[in-house]
């Protein structure tokens, strides 16, 4: 006891000695349990491998390669939708011009150009329908896999703090701590924005075999000093509450792109094949990236070359199209009844020269007439007569066109009714010469009456 008192007056050298001194009346058995727990706790050290730099960088290459996919989806859908509306409105304007103007050359030109514009509207609408499903799928798949990888890498990165710590789950160069690895930012963006674009993903990023810029299967478990103490990848766990994995099994993360297996002598980490995922432009069904690949390839195939959201430019493009002459001959045969031959060719050339225009002037005259020609019917209901180019909506253009169609359809009936009325009037007022002569009074000489015909020199 005197020795213990002398030690308690001096500065303690061990925390355990202080605890024993202050707890000298605690039963011995309990002290043994505390000591055993402390010793055991000091031996509980994580022993799982970190993900090697080649492994997590291969994962980070995925969002880098496909980061423009959502913007491509937005850009193509937007451009095709606007282009379909533009081509449809131009078709209606040309049809209204054909109905509103009396010049035959302009009428024929407008008919041909309207036919071509309608074809573009139909084709663009079809392309839009084709693009919808792959665009939605590609955008969703890209956003999903990018977010999963970003969250996973950020979790491991934020958990291991700085290189002063010897245990970590992301290895850098030479299997050291990944703190100084600048490429980490390629898949850990805090916020993501997608600029609309219509530029397809190039063949350096996606082709008929898969994603050339990515890797094939990678063995991704690091083993260097400090890189073998990741608690998340604990090897050979027992049923111990102090360990992350409490059973020997295989787990898959990031939609099965990353596989973790602790059922052997050491944990294995595998990054699945990311590059060669397709054959002849079609993804293999066993590929984790199959939906992403197929949707991106389908979206890349949707053309937007003819799509234009500017009516004037679209009209000029159509007027300069090499198929205009053939379309014009077809219209002339149908409307004017011309047979194939010199007369048909001459008439077609006349319309091209006088109305459609050639080379850099193609479409100019027709567009000017669209801007300058007023319509006889105002779809808004007031008395003003708007120009064709000033009518803003497809609905109003359809209303104006319907007015002209119904007006032209009623003209033959109106003419027929007028002729019938005139015939009846003539029947009611016309008299024979005999009736007129009988009505002439005796005192009125026959030759003074304009309705009287001289038969002979004597009076009637």
Question: How would you sum up this structure, described in words?
Answer:
This protein is mostly helical. Among the domains are: 2-43, no CATH class; 53-301, Variant Surface Glycoprotein, subunit A domain 1 (Variant Surface Glycoprotein, Chain A domain 1, Alpha-Beta Complex), CATH 3.90.150. The chain is 51% helix and 4% strand. The chain has helices at residues 2-9, 15-22, 28-43, 53-66, 69-100, 104-159, 290-301, 311-319, 324-335, 342-356, 364-372, 394-429, 433-439, and strands at residues 218-219, 250-253, 258-261, 268-271, 278-279, 282-283. The N and C termini lie far apart (179 Å).
For the structure shown, list the relevant keywords:
Variant surface glycoprotein 3062; Variant Surface Glycoprotein, Chain A domain 1; mainly alpha; cell membrane; Trypano_VSG_A_N_dom; glycoprotein; 460 residues; 13 helices; GPI-anchor; two-stranded antiparallel ribbon; disordered N terminus
Would you identify the CATH architecture of the domain at 53-301? Alpha-Beta Complex
Q: Within the CATH hierarchy, at the fold level, what is the topology of the domain at 53-301?
A: Variant Surface Glycoprotein, Chain A domain 1
Number of strands: 6
Helix-strand makeup class: mainly alpha
Biggest pleated-sheet summary: 4 strands, antiparallel
CATH class of the domain at 53-301: Alpha Beta
GO cellular component, one term: plasma membrane
Pfam family, one: Trypan_glycop
Keywords: Cell membrane, Glycoprotein, GPI-anchor, Lipoprotein, Membrane
Membrane topology: Lipid-anchor; GPI-anchor
């Amino acid at each position: 006891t005197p020795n213990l008192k002398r030690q308690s007056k001096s500065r303690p050298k061990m925390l355990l000695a202080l605890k024993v001194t202050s707890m000298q009346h605690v039963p011995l058995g309990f002290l043994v349990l505390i000591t055993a727990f402390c010793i055991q706790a000091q031996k509980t050290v994580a022993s799982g491998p970190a993900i090697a730099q080649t492994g997590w960088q291969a994962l980070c290459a995925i969002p880098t390669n496909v980061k423009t996919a959502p913007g491509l989806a937005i850009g193509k859908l937007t451009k095709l939708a606007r282009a379909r509306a533009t081509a449809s409105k131009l078709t209606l304007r040309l049809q209204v011009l054909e109905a509103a103007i009396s010049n035959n050359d302009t009428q024929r030109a407008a008919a041909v150009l309207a036919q071509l514009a309608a074809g573009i509207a139909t084709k663009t609408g079809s392309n839009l329908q084709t693009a919808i499903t792959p665009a939605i799928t590609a955008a969703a798949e890209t956003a999903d896999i990018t977010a999963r990888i970003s969250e996973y890498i950020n979790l491991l990165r934020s958990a291991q703090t700085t290189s002063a710590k010897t245990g970590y789950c992301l290895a850098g160069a030479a299997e050291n701590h990944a703190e100084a690895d600048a490429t980490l930012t390629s898949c850990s963006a805090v916020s993501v924005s997608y600029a609309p674009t219509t530029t397809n993903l190039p063949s350096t990023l996606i082709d008929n075999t898969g994603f050339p810029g990515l890797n094939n299967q990678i063995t991704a478990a690091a083993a260097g000093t400090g890189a073998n103490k990741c608690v998340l990848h604990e090897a050979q766990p027992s049923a111990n509450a102090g360990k992350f994995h409490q059973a020997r099994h295989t787990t898959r993360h990031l939609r099965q792109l990353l596989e973790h297996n602790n059922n052997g002598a050491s944990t294995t980490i595998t990054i699945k094949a990311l590059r060669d995922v397709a054959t002849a432009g079609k993804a293999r069904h066993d590929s984790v990236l199959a939906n992403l690949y197929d949707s991106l390839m389908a979206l890349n195939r949707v053309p937007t070359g003819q799509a234009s959201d500017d009516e004037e430019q679209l009209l000029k493009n159509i007027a300069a199209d090499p198929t205009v002459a053939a379309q014009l001959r077809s219209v002339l045969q149908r409307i004017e009844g011309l047979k194939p031959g010199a007369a048909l060719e001459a008439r077609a050339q006349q319309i091209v020269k006088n109305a459609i225009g050639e080379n850099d002037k193609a479409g100019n005259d027709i567009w000017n007439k669209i801007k300058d020609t007023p319509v006889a019917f105002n779809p808004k209901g007031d008395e003003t007569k708007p120009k064709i180019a000033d009518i803003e909506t497809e609905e109003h253009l359809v209303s104006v066109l319907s007015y002209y169609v119904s007006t032209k359809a009623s003209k033959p009936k109106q003419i027929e009714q007028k002729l019938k009325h005139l015939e009846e009037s003539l029947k009611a007022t016309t008299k024979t010469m005999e009736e007129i002569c009988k009505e002439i009074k005796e005192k009125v000489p026959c030759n003074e009456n304009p309705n009287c015909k001289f038969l002979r020199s004597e009076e009637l």
